[in-house]
Amino acid sequence: ANNHNFSIPSENYSTKYLRVKVTTTDAFGGTTILLSSSFEIGIADANPPTGSVEIIGNVQEGSTINASNNISDPDGIKQTIYNWQISLSNTSSGFSNITSASNASFTIASDQSMVEKYIRIKITITDNNDNINYFYSDAKQITNLNDPATGTVSITGRVEEGSTVIADTSGLSDLDGSLRFTFQWQSASNTSSSFINISSASNASYTIPSDQSMVNKYLRVKVQAKDPFNNTQEFISASKVVANIDDAATGTVSINGTVEEGSTVNADTSGLSDPDGSLKFTYQWQSALNASSSF
After folding, report:
1. What gap in Å lies between CA 78 and CA 69, rounded to an integer?
2. Rounded to an integer, what distance in angstroms lies between the CA atom of residue 29 and that of residue 97?
């Protein structure tokens, strides 16, 4: 028994103690003797248990799963110990016991702390001769359960002709992680009519036309939120009426008729117009001693 490995005989060694003595020799012939710790040689399990263990249930966030086994031992089973284990990857060396998870059933955390990790069950069997054997289930990856995004979206900025407004998504959140957004601005003639998509208005901001085309209409934004698992949810802001901005009337006013003593003349307003709509007029005739004096 002078090799680096040693096969323990199957007879006459049980309950004895085993250690290894190693003698080192350096380049100058110096020797050193080192001794390992000693270990009691156990009795081999002549009738090991057989069977397997598997995980039953939906392996996803918030679910309860169970360990099912068909393990039997000719020597009888004195004790069965359960240990649920978790790992970032599906490799046997990466698993560690989950704290306080030593029952046949286990409830997966309902937050994101275990999502996409791997879980398995380890069963320790002790027979009536105190032989110990271990059984492991296949590992399963924990899937995400969609947590719906919550909150509201709103419109910020002056909702008026010619202004730029912004879809405010700061009030939206999702337990599943960061959200990505797509936008669609919509308008309607009044609150009881259907909202329709505004062409080419699919950014977080929208510039209201500076003409009269949107004045007195209702504006809202529809936001689609997508979480890291590609679950989507739709949010719609409250609608706001688009206010008018005064556009100054343009053109000229002239006098029609013969401007002479005793004649009747008229104010000609046909050259006046206003983008805000039809004009109503009031008049005040004025006179002066000459063109350079005050009227």
Report:
1. 16
2. 48
